Amino acid sequence: MKTQAYFLSLFIFLMGTIKVHGQNYWSSLEEKESTLGIAEVYQKFKTPDFHIKLVKASQTVASLGPAQDTHFDFTPGDRLELRDKDGLYHLGDINLRIKEGKNEWKSYSTASQRKAVKPLEVTGNILAAADLTNTLPEDIPVSVTRFYELINGQLVLRFQITNKTHLAVEIGALGVPMVFNNILEGKSLVETHAQNVFFDPYIGLDAGYLEAKRLNGQGPALLVLPEENMAFEAYRPLLDDPTPRSIVFEGFHEWMVYSKAYAEEEWKGVEQWNPPTSLVLQPGERKDFALKFVLAAGIEKIQEKLREEKRPVTRGIPGYVIPQDIRAQLFIDYDHKIKSIEITPKGALRIQQDGFTEKGVKKMLVEGKKWGRSRVILTYENGLKQSINYKVIKPETEVVDDFGNFLMTKQWFDQADPIFKRNPSVISYDYETKEQLTQDSRAWVAGLSDEGGAGSWLAAIMKQLVQPEKAEIEKLQKFIDHTLWGHIQYSEGKHQYGVKKSVFYYAPDSLPKGTYLDSINYDTWAAWNHQQANDPGRSYNYPHVAAAYWVMYRLARYHEGLVDNRPWEWYLKQAYHTSIAMVEHAPYYAQFGQMEGSVFLFILEDLKNENLEAMASDLEARMHSRAIHWKALEYPFGSEMPWDSTGQEEVYMWSDYFGYDHKARVTLDAILAYMPTLPHWAYNGNARRYWDFLYGGKLSRVERQIHHYGSSLNAIPVLKQFRKSPENLYLLQVGYGGLLGGIANITQDGFGPAAFHSYPSTLRIDYLSGDYGSGFYGYAVNTATYITKDEDLGWLAFGGNLEIKGETVHVKLTTAAKSKIFIAPAQVWLTLDAGTFHEVSYHTKTGRLKLSLNAKDDYTPSAFLRIEGNAEDLAYTKIGGAYKIPLEEEKTDIVLHIDKGHDGED
């Protein structure tokens, strides 16, 4: 009952927090007058690709689905009777902001006050047409006519705009609402995966597009493409639509071709993805704006469909987040030559053309020169403009070093805290005020637990897995001995090994006056009292603690002198007991996949490596029972939220481990449905997340989050699957986009924010550290160098700089950890428990593999190498399955041979 009450309180909190013009509940929509005209008959059409239904009175889209599936609807047609009111957007609407002379901008929308449109006579390839004058304000200086038509058998939505005055008018905003069925309200997980879609934008000017994909990841996928004068300039959230936004509805956006009016007002001072523009229409001048709707056979066929539609197909290697020491590549498959390249800010990137592949794909070399956001606008000889947004970051080693330093200095909390006993620890931080966050109305944010409070200390410990630093580890040992074990986590009694929901709590009646700041509103369910804060029943808190112990075990086990407060055995057993405690003390939520839940598999593997058979068997049995439960569910991705994108990581990993291949595939398909690859750093590999600014952010609102922790966590199963299917470059593109997205938002001085705000009015990081630690976990356990060969693109490196000399491929690693390498053609996975790789050389004909290890240091006299794949045995002692390799004062070279039966080379 406690857990059910907790979920209910979460929902009430969200609905009470989200204000949409005072409309908080779905029932409020029912009270509005119906104005769309759905009581009238519908117009129905069938095209080669779609079945489409229009509301006769408004000629807006009532349903749109694949021609071969009459039951599926990409639009929220199932809500039509509820959403048939003024102010609610539908596919087929248009929004404008227009200025006459020196007057101010004025807004016009076909959705504001519904009236029946005037149908026009149709001929030829036109399915339906209407003059929209009736449903637009009388003072609008332009006339708007809308057409649904077939061009070469494909569905096109066209707007024709004419200046009907005797003066020139400026259109400063033109947007077409993209209204597809992402409303999850009142549906089960089975229903949402079958009936709903998520959609992702490539805000790429003339080369831009929108992709709408079913939640189950099955085809076909809907693509919205520019047909005429519809450059994808901006993507504006339709916050005035009264459909209540919440955990069950992210909201709608509109495709904007002009956005200057918003850039001058609501978005003033914010650097947009693309330069804001406008259009001046002379008296009597007419211009058409058209979008085309097409279907791709499946998500992984989207790029193939774009190529078929003669759109630029762009692939960035390793993606669009570029560390400054990487020689990145950009491949452009488009028939027209590049006329010019414009880079903003000037000098931010260095781009040079590098010839063509055998199939004629353009090759370009890209180097990041200036830290921060940058934009490339390519203009082709046919006039098409394409924008590609990059994020340049420091070399990964420097990013992680800065991050660790910020955590262990700016966020290191060691002041007197006699009531809540949070010292010493790494505590939440407000980057705007440059202050540690010791109080918040959300108890967990200041309470060192939950993702929003544990995030900072979790990140600090995960950093040590990547780049261990003795001085930082000494501080973290104090945190473990004095704050984590025995305070955040129960060390004795009936709740032993249980993890509290928060160590900060709100109890003004029992604590001294002045304990709490008057400036904070504690009148909320999230300001937990002492009893609520002490509750160990939230399973999501356990992976953070288990991961902390697991990292310390590995540091103590494979290094000498880095960890000196406890033996490695203690840490590994603590990780085991914490894992078991999750299913014992938090059984309700333990039925769901956990964020960072992959750590339980890593712990199990190490228990087996250490021959701790009883513990390994127990943990495996507990996890097996969870996996069996997931196997029985069609879509086992629940959580405390109605829909979530965090459980998939663990569900996939255990399904794969126990051989439940079908469930692993179902899980992967669901991930790919909300995790796209697009030529834009913010959306490439960005797993969908849109409510956690409420729980861990400073700017609290429902909003698509850019590279929240979902990106790097979901990259774990995607890259794992790539290692099982190394011919699938799509998986590597998606997974590596999420992996580097996981560190893209770290600031120049090392602050790790909760996420980046996607609204064009903001486009910046959130100022709280929040739940970012879960994201850095995803980076820390998953960072690796991938070497692969594409049939046309040739040899590629993700996480390294590649050079080909004769028949040998050389790659110098650039990742921060430099501890993992996957050679796709050979299907060999190399990992180091200690030590680092400097370079790898692979002879493509003989299979000879040369590994260069960096020199030893004070704490790492030996490397521990694990090899998965068909490689010869090495003449080194094995400890727990890893080769122990003594390191030298300079580099250490190792040579092994790969079974050529796995190599795709001739």
Please tell me about this protein's structure:
The protein has 906 residues and is an alpha+beta fold. The chain contains 20 helices and 43 strands. The strands form 10 sheets. The protein has an 8-stranded antiparallel beta sheet with strand order 6-7-8-9-17-13-12-11. A 7-stranded mixed beta sheet has the order 33-32-36-37-40-42-41. Strands 4, 5, 10, 14, 15 and 16 form a 6-stranded antiparallel beta sheet that branches. A hairpin with a 4-residue loop joins strand 24 and strand 25. Helix 11 packs parallel to helix 14 (613-632) and helix 15 packs parallel to helix 18 (709-724). It is globular.
Report the portion of residues in β strands.
25-35%
Spatial gap, N to C terminus: 63 Å
Instruction: Return the structural class.
Output: alpha+beta
Proportion of helical residues:
25-40%
- Total helices: the number is 20
Unreliable residue runs: 1-23, 902-906
Mean pLDDT: 95
β-strand number: 43
User: Compute the gyration radius: what is it?
Assistant: 28 Å
Largest β sheet strand count, sense and barrel closure: 8 strands, antiparallel
Shape: globular
Task: Enumerate the strands of the largest sheet in spatial order, edge to edge or round the barrel.
Answer: 6-7-8-9-17-13-12-11
